[in-house]
Design brief:
By secondary structure, the protein is mainly alpha-helical. The protein is built from three helices and two strands. Strands 1-2 form a two-stranded antiparallel ribbon. A hairpin with a 2-residue loop joins strand 1 and strand 2.
Length: about 80
């Protein structure tokens, strides 16, 4: 699995950590971050589907696949 590095504001990391560990929903930060990314991508797919921009293979153009909507607007 590839590794990535991101800068995260302290407040956001503190909030994330409240959901990690023995009393949390996730075993570790990586699991929490992966779940968050999956959820966000699912929501973006739902938005694209409602606007007719999603086919069974994903975004309908290379430009949208790179995160740039055709009309220049943002849905989220």
């Amino acid at each position: 699995m590839p590794k990535v590095s991101v800068d995260i504001p302290e407040e956001l990391l503190d909030d994330l950590d409240r959901h990690v560990g023995d009393d949390g929903k996730f075993v570790n930060r990586s699991d929490a971050i992966r779940a968050s990314i999956r959820k966000t991508l699912d929501l973006l797919d739902e938005i694209d589907d409602r606007h007719g921009r999603l086919d069974e293979n994903g975004p309908s153009s290379e430009e949208e696949a790179e995160g740039n909507p055709k009309d220049g607007s943002e849905d989220a």
